[in-house]
Design brief:
The protein has 497 residues and is α+β, with helices and mostly antiparallel strands. It is built from 17 helices and 21 strands.
Length: 497
């Protein structure tokens, strides 16, 4: 970008925060396929299905038997990978791809994945979903030892460790590298002969294995298999490394086996409703969240209204359980892009209406229950509550289909710092007062677990899911947050083009 907007950059960031900041931003999505003539096109389609997981950048790397080919761009998949010329340039039957929302490293083309490195045994491309909680520590050690880093992405640390391994086989080098990593990850790597998929020891981030006419596929979610007509084979297990070659598929468990703890937020918010995770329909789970929420916090009302779009399944479940009618009392504008409007206070106040409008006919004179999936900063929620009041609602009750978010995430979800999380600053009454609702209630943590099929709720000794945003129970070390580690990401090179 040119420097002409720099005077307003802070205001623009704040304006975007007003529009978009009261939510948990997406993580990333990965896709890979081995041995298909249309590998690049299928990868582009798979990434399109995973676009909800990251809208900042997209990239594809292919291998044609002789050369690796790369296309990486800032922006949406549809902005760059719908042109036949682009797909034709990505020759080869092997491909991996990535959609990104940055949680480590700045938004710049050099951080767009897949990342590629030339090794003594040939090239390797790699992409990942998640976040390594010791990447900064390892990165600085690598630099002290002479490594030259070309990005600020923590994914590059894996490439550096693979390159430095003295193991002979690429699979062993890959395993040695990821064995040094902490945190949450689903990794897909491509070499001249192999497609490799790996999931962290707790299975925090999702990864599935599929098949299309004999071509093995890795994807973050099953919806990416569905879009290309591929068959779902199974979940990649927690701590598993799966190696696909033209000769077959091999599986390794280099970390031993332990109980899985997938991230509960995949069910609450991140995954597409039509995906299936660990045998659970995401859509059905979200409806069950709404049912349990209604059991825990019923209120006299005339209409149940979802906050679009993520609150819709929970609101359907809430309405079914409570017997109160479900109505689309808020209409979402799906054609909102980045605003070019100067961020004056008046525009700031009107900002929420760019995305949501009240359906007055379904609200006026009624007691309304608003149902949403989660509450983060509260800035958008208070505007929606006011919008419903302005449309003539008699009462406004707010219900959240997840517990209060009190702790930051370090596993690939872009949460605000803890001081900006509403539930970290206020008690329930303080939050209710802040957003201006008549009543406010959250789904309990045990309610979440009951909705997931665990009738006794959360096993506090051995939790069945990763739920640190609610409980502060982080399943892995957070090495980069220790007192003796400088966590500032301060790249010396700033891209201006």
């Amino acid at each position: 970008m040119s420097s002409g907007v720099s005077n307003n950059s802070a205001d623009l960031r704040e304006l975007r925060a007003d529009f978009d900041g009261d939510t948990l931003h997406e993580e990333c999505g990965v896709f890979g396929i081995l041995g298909h003539d249309d590998a690049a096109a299928l990868t582009a389609l798979g990434l399109h299905a995973l676009q909800h997981r990251g809208q900042e950048a997209a990239g594809i790397v292919t291998f044609d038997g002789d050369q690796f080919r790369s296309e990486r761009h800032m922006g949406l998949v549809g902005d760059h990978f719908t042109q036949q010329e682009t797909i034709d340039n990505l020759k080869g039957p092997y491909a991996i791809g990535h959609v990104r929302y940055s949680t480590t490293g700045e938004a710049a083309l050099r951080n767009v994945q897949p990342l590629f490195a030339e090794l003594d045994g040939g090239g390797i491309a790699i992409c990942h979903n998640g976040n390594f909680t010791n990447a900064l520590t390892l990165r600085r050690q690598l630099i002290r030892d002479g490594a030259i880093c070309q990005s600020t992405s923590d994914s590059e640390v894996v490439l550096q460790l693979v390159a430095r391994s003295r193991e002979k086989k690429i699979v062993d080098r890959f395993i040695e590298a990821i064995s040094q990593m902490e945190g949450a990850y689903s990794l897909v790597a491509l070499t001249r002969k192999k497609l490799i998929g790996a999931r962290d020891p707790y299975g925090i981030r999702p990864l599935v294995l599929g098949d299309l006419n004999g071509a093995p596929i890795f994807a973050s979610e099953t919806c990416a298999l569905d879009i290309i007509g591929a068959k779902f084979i199974r979940e990649v297990e927690n701590g598993e490394v799966v190696v696909c070659t033209p000769g077959g598929i091999e599986s390794y468990f280099p970390f031993g086996k332990r109980p899985a703890r997938p991230d509960i937020f995949e069910y609450i918010y991140f995954s597409r409703p039509d995906s299936v995770l660990n045998g659970h329909s995401v859509y059905d789970v979200r409806k069950r969240f709404g049912r349990v929420l209604a059991q825990e916090s019923a209120v006299e009302a005339d209409v149940i209204v979802p906050v679009p779009d993520s609150g819709v399944p929970a609101a359907l479940g809430f309405a079914a359980e409570s017997g109160v009618p479900f109505e689309l009392g808020i209409i979402r504008n799906h054609y909102v892009g980045r605003t070019f409007i100067e961020p004056t206070q008046q525009i700031r106040t009107l900002g929420v209406k760019l995305k949501h409008s009240a359906n007055r006919a379904q609200i006026e004179g009624k007691r309304v229950v608003l149902v949403d999936d989660s509450l983060v900063r509260g800035t958008t929620s208070l505007k929606i509550v006011q919008m419903i009041r302005d449309a003539g609602a008699k009462e406004v009750h707010f219900r959240l289909a997840s517990p209060p978010i009190k702790f930051s995430d370090y596993y690939g979800i872009d949460t605000p710092v803890r001081e900006k999380l509403l539930a970290a600053k206020y008690n329930l009454e303080g939050m209710r007062n802040y957003i201006g609702a008549d009543t406010l209630a959250f789904l309990s943590i045990d309610g979440v677990y009951r909705a997931m099929g665990h009738e006794n709720g959360r096993d506090n000794e051995n939790p069945q899911f990763t739920d640190h945003c609610f409980t502060g129970d982080y399943p892995t070390p957070l090495t980069d947050l220790s007192d003796d580690v400088d966590t500032r990401q301060a790249p010396r090179l700033v891209e201006t083009g």
